[in-house]
Structures are given as structure tokens and as C-alpha cells.
Amino acid sequence: MASFEISGKLFKKFETEQKTQSFSAREFVLEVNDNNYMQLIKFQLTQDRCGLLDPFEEGSEVKVHFDLRGREWNGKYFTNLNAWKLEAHQPGNTGGFPEEEDFVFNDEPPEINQNQPTPDDDLPF
After folding, report:
1. Which of 15, 31, 49, 54 could disulfide-link to 45, CB 3.0 to 4.6 Å?
2. 108 assigned to some structural domain
3. Per residue in 51-101, pLDDT tens?
4. For residues 37 and 124, which has the higher predicted lDDT (pLDDT)?
5. CB within 8 A of 30, min separation 6: which ones?
6. Are strands 61-73 and 23-34 parallel, antiparallel or unpaired?
7. Which CATH number characterizes residue 93's domain?
8. What is the distance between the alpha carbons of residues 101 and 76, in angstroms, rounded to a whole number?
9. Is position 10 within any domain?
10. pLDDT of res. 94
């Protein structure tokens, strides 16, 4: 499945909720400026990833790696932004905030073999 990343300011973080005996979830809201309009985007962490939010304070710049999850229940359709990695945002990184595009489309992070040439190495000049 494809993964995405976005950077913004941690607007609100919530406590972990035990949804069932075997499932826990934690939500947080990221503030992103989109063409001078503030957007508040809610993400979800699940299971052992709920603790990833602990080191971050509200107001700090965060880069969120996430994927899209969707399901149907009783004829209604739901979509979740399922976060799986959080990083302190470093100005100048790709997926920047707010000058560059808000969303960066990635396939799952590739494994890099140090012995293989990068795509730029096969240029004829």
C-alpha cells in the first residue's frame, strides 16, 4: 500500500483509548497551512504505536508518515489517516512546511542496496 507524509504543527494530542480488550488507539490533530488557509487534520495511531506521540508537545513541528485506511460498516464508509511514524520536522527537508506541496506520495520505503547505482548514475553524460 502507498504511504504519504505531511509536516505541520502539532495542534492537539489526545490520550490513548482502549477501544476493546485487544485494541487501543490514540488520535492527534496536525495544523497545516494550505495556500494561506489553516487546515486541522486528524490522524490515528494504533496499538504499540500510540506511544510515538509521547515525546512531542503541542505546538511543535512534526513530520507524520501515514497511510489511508477505509472500511464499510452498516452501509456507511469511514476513512482513517493511520500514522505509523512521527519525526521532529527539520526545516529544509522534503515534504516541507508550508512552502512545498503538503502531501508527498511514496511507495513503501525502499530497501537500499549500497552496491546498486542510484537512478542518476545511469545518465549518459
Report:
1. 49
2. no
3. 999 999 999 999 999 999 999 999 999 999 999 999 997 765 444 444 444
4. 37
5. 6, 8, 9, 10, 11, 40, 41, 43, 62, 64
6. unpaired
7. 2.40.50.140
8. 31
9. yes
10. 45
Alpha-carbon distance values, 5 to 11, 19, 57, 83, 124 (Å): 17, 26, 19, 9, 33
CA distance 81 to 61: 18
The number of C-alpha atoms within 13 Å of 30 and in the hemisphere containing its C-beta is: 30
Indicate the burial class of 85 (C-beta count within 10 angstroms; 0-12, 13-18, 19 or more).
Answer: middle
15 confidence band (pLDDT: 50, 70, 90): very high
Distance of CA 5 to the CA centre of its chain: 5
Q: How many helices (H) and strands (E) does the chain have?
A: 0, 7
Domain count along the chain: 1
User: Does the structure show a pLDDT above 70 at 1?
Assistant: no
CB atoms within 10 A of CB 80: 17
Task: Give φ, ψ of 123 to 5 degrees.
Answer: -70, 145
Question: How distant is the alpha carbon of residue 84 from its chain centre?
Answer: 7
Report the share of the chain in percent with pLDDT over 70: 71
